[in-house]
Each structure stands twice: as structure tokens, then as C-alpha cells.
Amino acid sequence: MNGSHWHAQLRDTVRTVDQLARVLTLSPRELDGARRAEAQGLPLRITPYYLSLCDPLDPSCPIRRQCVPDAREAEDVPGDLVDPLGEVVHEVAPHLIRRYPDRALLVATDRCAVYCRFCTRSRLVGDGGGAVSLDALGPALTYLEGHPEVREVIVSGGDPLVMSTPRLVALLGALRRVPSIELLRLATRAPVTLPMRITQELVKALRPFHPLWVMTHFNHPKELTVESLGALARLVDGGFPVMNQTVLLRGVNDDVAVLDTLFRGLVRARVRPYYLLQADPVRGTGHLRTPLARGVEIMGALQGRLTGIALPKFICDTPGGLGKVPLGPEVIVRKGPGVTRLRTFRGDEVDAIDPPDDTR
Ligand code: SF4
Questions:
Q1: Can you tell me which atom of ligand 1 is nearest the CA of 187?
Q2: Domain 4-327 homologous superfamily, CATH
Q3: What is the pLDDT of residues 3-46, one digit of tens each?
Q4: Eight-class DSSP state of 46
């Protein structure tokens, strides 16, 4: 795979209403949304590759809904927050967010190949100076050195794979020099929006940093293309465990058959569907969110229908950064002394009997 190919994709990203209108027949709502994105809020940016997956005529296309701005982004609905995960208050050093005892998240850049309209970090993506220099990350590295209980760092952004390979390698090398960090994670949507970024050269450059887990973000089976499957194969063949987080989005994937197809496709690509995430209440994304009960209902339908390795956990990341809560259909009918009545995925009820107390 030619490395210059991904640079060309980034160079040729669509960023203006005029460019977008040349490729897609925009609805009035999209036209308003794109005009607004050009002037304020989360910018418009779509790679030619990802744009090629959009239906040019249908505004309800699930790829289009993810990347084409919508006039409703200007609307506030109850529950909306600018920083839904409370990341600002959990920033322990510049660019370093710590919400859990054993891990921290490094915001390495504000750039992405495509700006997803539902982005949890829409408050900062596309808004700063690009990749953060190693100098500017100095206080974050010093913090990690002084806090050996942090054993895992998630390198995120923005999308760290939009950074150049030498810059990424320098950052991972600096993190690897902190002896207490056991695990590195790379959070990237590049396999979905810029799969040509996953070159053999990149895989070779990342290999010294094992264990390095790759967290990616497929939301719809249309994203599982020949190109993206090739990117995933190169990562997995390179020895990187790849996990996927899907965000549940109205009109994109809030459908049992769509998610069944997506999760099965990911498992065939040797990618573990890890989380199905309730969409965070980011300001301006009310039109893309579903009620919590819809996710629970979908999980109930997928349970038993999908092999366990294809079944993610359904997670609500609670507002304010208080942590993730796993959700699913109610399976405990009642609890009594020594016996719990369970409901199976077929709706049968069955007692699970505890062993007798061992008094010997
Ligand atoms: S790639 Fe990730 S960080 Fe970038 S806009 Fe999409 S969801 Fe946000």
C-alpha cells in the first residue's frame, strides 16, 4: 500500500459547502448544517474515501448521517452538555484526562480525517493547533511518571493516526519509557474513515510498542469495505489486538438486523465488538440519539441470536464523568434465600440454586 495515498486523502478532504454540494444532493437541513459548520461549531471534514460510501441522493444514508452536518446541530435539547464526560474537570495535566484509578487518556491531537457529527469531544476537535508537541506533553508525561498506579494510557484525540508516523512513534516511545505503563491503547477511526493510513510501514513502526491495543469505531456494515477489511487484516496480522466501539445512533444503526450484520462482520475480520455505547449527550446531537430503553431492547434481541464473541456490552458513560454503567435486559426475576430465578433469552424462567453453606 502506497503511503502517499493517505496523505492525498487528507489533502483532498471535503471542507466546504460547495465541495460537498458537488458530490451530494444536499437536503435543506444538510445545506443549513454545512453552512453553519463552515462558520462555527464542529467543522466539516470528510475524506474522499468516506464520502464515496455516502449515497449521493439519500440524506437518510447511514454514512451521510454520520459525517454530513445537519441544521439540528444548532438545537439544544434537555440533557445536552458541552463536555458530557466531565473531561475538563478530570484533566490532571494539560492534555491528560484521568477518570479511573488505573488508566488515563491522552489527547494527542485535535485533528481527525472525518469529523463525526456525534463526536463526544466536539468541543475541542478541529479547534486547536493540530498534533500536540512532545514538549507540550511534558507535564502529562511527568504526571504519569509520578503516578505509577496508572498502568494504561489511551492515546486518543482527535485521531492519533492522522499524525505523522515519526511523531506518533516519538510519542509512543516517550510513553513506553515510563516503566509503570503496562498497556498502551490507540483510539482511532482511521480503519473506518482513512483505511489507507494502515500501511505495512505503519504496522512495522508500531510493532515495538506491544502490548498496543487498537480501539476502533465502526458503526455500520457499509463501513466494512474491501479497504477497511484490508486495514484491519494488516493490524491483526501485525499482532495488534483490535477492539471496536460502536455508538448507537438514531437512523444509523438503531436496528437489530444492522447491528447483527455489523458485529458478525467485525468478528469475521478478527475484531472484537467490545462496547455498544449509548450516544453521549453532546450538545447539538439530540437528533442522532436514541432513548436508553432502545439500546436495552436491542441487546435483548441480540442476546442468544449472536455468538458471545460478537456480542458487545451495552454501556452508558454517565454524564459528568462518573464512569461507565453496563446495561442489558432484566434477567433476574426474583431473588430468594439460596435461589435466584433467572429469565433466559427465550423467555423461560429457571431457578439457579446456590450450594449449601459449607459449615465444616
Ligand atoms: S474520529 Fe473520533 S474524535 Fe474524531 S470526530 Fe470522529 S468520534 Fe470524534
A1: 2
A2: Aldolase class I (3.20.20.70)
A3: 569 999 999 999 999 999 999 999 999 999 999 998 888 999 99
A4: B
